[in-house]
Every structure is written in C-alpha cells, then in structure tokens.
User: Which sequence fits this backbone?
C-alpha cells in the first residue's frame, strides 16, 4: 500500500517454533510527516523505508520461510 505520504508492507510471519494456531502477519507502515515536496519522491522514499523496516522486522522476529522482498510494486 502506498499514498503520496505513506507506505505499508504486509507479510506472513510465523516465528520459528511458534505454537500459534493462527497464521500471524507482520506489518510495517511508514508515514512522512513533512507534507511538502514532490509526491512521487515522497512516495518512493516512504516505500524504501517501509521495505527496509520490513526486512529488518522479519529478521528480528525469526520468521519461518521469510519472504524475500522483491522490487517495490505500487498498488
């Protein structure tokens, strides 16, 4: 998800050894507080930060079968 000032990444994440009966998800949302500037640049910046945080969060959560995040796709 992305808007001119925010971006989000949603991924499945089951921590290694988890006994949860529900499939947990990991989500990261970034919102740019400074509303000035070019919309395309703002959106790209927010998406890059959200992607980097999602990769870091997957690693920190020890997700089984962590997804490799490919290029950013606008939806």
Assistant:
């Amino acid at each position: 998800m992305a808007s001119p000032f925010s971006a989000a990444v949603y991924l499945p994440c089951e921590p290694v050894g988890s006994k949860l009966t529900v499939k947990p998800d990991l989500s990261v949302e970034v919102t740019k507080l400074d509303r000035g500037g070019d919309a395309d640049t703002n959106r790209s910046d927010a998406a890059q930060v959200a992607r980097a945080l999602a990769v870091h969060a997957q690693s920190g959560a020890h997700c089984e079968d962590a997804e490799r995040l490919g290029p950013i796709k606008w939806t």
Notes: Helices lie at 39-61. Residues 39-61 form the longest helix (23 residues). The beta strands are 6-12, 14-15, 25-31, 63-64.
